[in-house]
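Cross-check.
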Amino acid sequence: MNSLTWTFNDAPTGDEIAELRSRLAAWNIAVSGIANERWLAWFVHDEGSDLVGGAVGRAWGEVLELRFLWVHERLRGRGVGSELLTRIEQDGASLGCTTVTTDTFSFQAPEFYRKHGYEVFGYIDGYPESTAKYYLRKTIQ
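Predicted model, tokenized:
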């Protein structure tokens, strides 16, 4: 351990993060034997080509991990988020996924996911501060 150099970085670059992610993914494949990781994304643009919504997920084995789902404030409550969720779930199912997992904060969208058939399987109160973090899952066909 004496020959190691430890460096703290409170603003790592995208390349540094990608390098760590790549090495972890290689390790995960080596020990799990599951090599079929795929990233999926849907983007929604308005008539002016501005980004107004999107969803990003990672399919790995039989699980689709929904990492991000965002809709511009002016389009919330108009079905855009529901359509994004439906589309990415369908894409995951077409790749053989049987489960979708995601997480959300209490100030974000726990009720949105519940409305779409997700169940809470984990909860952390005070994450961060006076909010909570929910972990949700849904079985898909």
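The radius of gyration is 18 Å. The chain has three helices and six strands. Passed to J.P. for a second look.
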